[in-house]
Amino acid sequence: MKTIAIDMDGVLADVYQQFIDMHLAESGITLERNDMVGKAEAEAFPHLLKHVNSNGFFETAPLMAGSQQALKELSKHYRLFIVSAATEFPLSLAEKHSWLGKHFPFITWQQMVFCGSKEIIKTDIMIDDHFKNLDVFEGKTFLYTQPHNENASPGKHQRVNDWQEIQKILLP
């Protein structure tokens, strides 16, 4: 059975919406996704480090539309691994584990990979929103569109815009 490494933040968890919601609650100002196109996340979100280091940020992030159903269907044909560079924000480890258990109960703890660099990941396919993770991967790569990568050429990676598109490509 082929294997897929799936990024969490920006692919399964809608961290952009989480940043937008937290910024609104804190400042009363609504950030628009269109204004973030082409900007690094740290530039798009002025309080990024404060938010990712606050209790509840990762545990309460909303789901990307269609991700639950897509992973259920993909799990019938592939061995799935959720791969997150969670050690960048060590406080996120327990929250990400809890979030995955809540939203993807069919993903076992053995399928959760919390790491630093993703260059060690050796699956057949990787779905991620960051070039730094895809560029060092040796298998088939899918670039999940987010504002920070929207203007960039996908290069050797296949761009995907949502979970319906991924299902159309990967499911028989």
From TrEMBL:
Record: active site: D7 (nucleophile), D9 (proton donor)
InterPro entries on file: 5'(3')-deoxyribonucleotidase, HAD-like_sf, HAD_sf
Gene3D superfamilies membership: Deoxyribonucleotidase, domain 2, HAD superfamily/HAD-like
SUPFAM superfamilies the record matches: HAD-like
A GO BP annotation: pyrimidine deoxyribonucleotide catabolic process
PANTHER family according to UniProt: 5'(3')-DEOXYRIBONUCLEOTIDASE
Family: Belongs to the 5'(3')-deoxyribonucleotidase family.
Descriptive protein name: 5 nucleotidase, deoxy, cytosolic type C
